[in-house]
Design a protein that fits this description.
The protein has 2 helices and 5 strands, in the order H-H-E-E-E-E-E. It is an alpha+beta fold. A 3-stranded antiparallel β-sheet has the order 1-2-5, covered by helices on one side. A two-stranded antiparallel ribbon has the order 3-4.
């Protein structure tokens, strides 16, 4: 499923135009993106939770030369599905 499919489904379900649905979906995605960039946790009941997690520093290897290289600390977005959509 791509964003256009979401827009089509939302437009049909809400009885609005595709343009109005696209604006609403884009606003939702922008809000989620802004919150994650601020490091906030997003909980959507019945769907799941988006969290920003810290990644540790580490040591990696260059596969071509075998030299060790430091891997810097960073952040990653993690999603934990809610009970209603959990498959396994």
């Amino acid at each position: 499923m791509v964003k256009a499919d979401l827009v089509n489904k939302a437009a049909r379900a809400a009885g609005v135009t595709k343009t109005q649905a696209a604006i609403a979906i884009e606003a939702l995605f922008d809000s989620i993106k802004d919150s994650l960039l601020r490091g906030e946790r997003i909980e959507l009941r019945g769907f799941g939770v988006f969290e920003v997690k810290a990644k540790k520093t580490g040591i990696g290897r260059n596969p071509k030369t075998g030299d060790e290289m430091p891997i810097p600390a960073g952040k990653a977005i993690r999603f934990k599905p809610g009970k209603e959509i959990r498959i396994l």
